[in-house]
Amino acid sequence: MSEIKRIGVMTGGGDCSGLNAVVRAVTLTAINKYGCEVIGFKKGYAGLYANDYIELTAENTANILNQGGTILKNSNKDNLFNYAYRDENGNIQHKDVSDVAVQNLKDLNIDALVVIGGDGTLTSARDFARKGVKVIGVPKTIDNDVSYADITFGFTTALGVICNAVDRVRTTAYSHDRVQILEVMGRNCGWLALEGGLSGGADVILLPEIPYDINKIVEVIKNRDAKGLYDTVIVVSEGAKPKDGDVVIKKIVADSADTVRLGGIGDQLASQLEALLGGKEVRATNIGHTQRGGETCQYDRSLCTKLGSLAVDALFEGCSGEMVTIYNAVPQTVSLEKVLGSGATGETSKGGSHNVDPNGFVVKTARNTGISFGD
Ligand code: F6P
Fold first, then answer.
1. Residue from 327, 8, 23 nearest 149 by CA
2. The ligand 1 atom nearest the CA atom of 186
3. Most CB atoms within 10 A, among 177, 199, 200, 240?
4. What's the whole-model pTM score?
5. Distance 16 CA to ligand 1 centre (A)
6. For the ranges 24-33, 39-48, 73-82, 274-283, which has the lowest average pLDDT?
7. Catalytic residue of the set 15, 143, 145, 203
8. Measuring from each residue's beta carbon to the nearest atom of ligand 1, which residues come in under 6 Å?
């Protein structure tokens, strides 16, 4: 008889499509296969700290397989090992409140935790495992920047949004003989821009991993114009930067573990290009959080179901401090210490470790088909 009778599950960090599908798979596997009870903490670690939870059942997780967002809600501000709060003067201070969470788990008779999240959320999962909590991670992020994961869930749904957006700006670029820039997410990783641009048939793709020279982009546009191809579509990653410059920061979120929010390079590039193109119009569209929302695509529904179910199986096989993943096409668990590094407890790993290889297969394929990286 296993000692696991009650499992806690949570979704932390920024959301992405597919979180509900994982919550459902965890719940159904725990109930159907192991006869376990399942508790869902609200707003990630915030709920674990505040004892805010609901019981999850086959009934209240029915019909959420395809739904974007998360019925458990998310927070990306609650690192309980370095908890941000405002003191009496309104200044942000930090303290370690992880013991409160450990006590809450004991009081609720929760024997194991499934944590669904990106690098920040999984770093805390690693740190709870260090404190003796039985915990398994499920990696999520549209950025696809987690090491030891072929593809993170949410990524493929986001690519569908990008591909569709490229199609849409292409037709209006054609009608008006314009340059259309599409800014996409990804933080410091270019997978979304690369795969989205490739599948949409962009003419230029700008990535954090390949700093660009604006004059090369101007050259591409002029060469296309000379051939009668007056529409040019550029997909730019929010983390892309020029060879002699830096990323564009949209805002600083002071009480978040990762304070920097990127954004704005599309608009900046549009004005710079217009100034260099002598009359040709350039427009920019930032598709932002549309990439994180909406119905989960078929591939992600299936991936989420596999990972959620695998997470529960892994717990019952005695795993803890591990992440479930499909890596090199093999379903497996990998130690969170290995995925995120063995940094100090409470220090959030910034992730972004699974980057685009500038000399890799996908970049080469794009170059073969005439796509420029502005380098
Ligand atoms: O990590 C996922 C992600 O969507 C990034 O691509 C993006 O930079 C960031 O989160 C946006 O975060 P927020 O939801 O705080 O705007």
1. 327
2. 6
3. 240
4. 0.96
5. 9
6. 73-82
7. 143
8. 14, 76, 118, 141-143, 185-187, 238, 261-262, 292
pLDDT tens for 110-136 read 999 999 999 899 999 999 999 999 999
Report residue 8 as tokens: 């806690």
Ligand 1 centroid from CA 76, angstroms: 10
Q: Which of 43, 142, 251, 287 to mutate to test the pocket of ligand 1 (most atoms within 8 A of CB)?
A: 142
Compute CA distances 307 → 37, 98, 116, 118, 302, whole Å.
19, 26, 10, 14, 9
The per-residue pLDDT for range 326-374, each reduced to its tens digit, is 999 999 999 999 999 888 888 877 655 799 999 999 999 999 999 999 9
Find the 185 Cα to ligand 1 centroid distance in Å.
Answer: 7
Ligand 1 center to 304 CA (angstroms): 20
- DSSP label at residue 111: -
pLDDT for 36: 97
Report the atom number in ligand 1 closest to the C-alpha of 187.
Answer: 8
Residue (of 2, 287, 315) closest to 166 by Cα position: 287
pLDDT value at residue 1:
45
**Distance from C-alpha of 188 to C-alpha of 265, rounded to nearest angstrom:** 13
Atom number in ligand 1 closest to CA 239: 8
40-63 pLDDT tens trace: 999 999 999 999 999 999 999 999
For residue 94, how many other CB atoms are within 10 A of its CB? Answer: 13
- The answer to whether residues 13 and 140 touch, using CB atoms and an 8 Å cutoff, is yes
> For residues 119 and 239, what is the distance between their CA atoms, to the nearest angstrom?
17
Give residue for tokens 């957006």.
Answer: 165
Q: What is the pLDDT of residue 49?
A: 96
Phi, psi of 82 (to 5 degrees): -150, 60
**With the CA atoms of 106, 111, 114 and 118 taken in that order, what torsion angle do they form, in degrees rounded to the nearest 10?**
40
Provide the β-strand partners of residue 326.
Answer: 331
| pLDDT for res 352 | 52
If you search the block for the tokens 């990998």, which residue do you land on?
334
CA distance 184 to 169: 13
Q: Is 255 a catalytic residue?
A: no
Q: Which atom of ligand 1 lies at the shortest distance from residue 145's CA? A: 1
Report the distance separating Cα 6 and Cα 305, nearest Å. Answer: 20
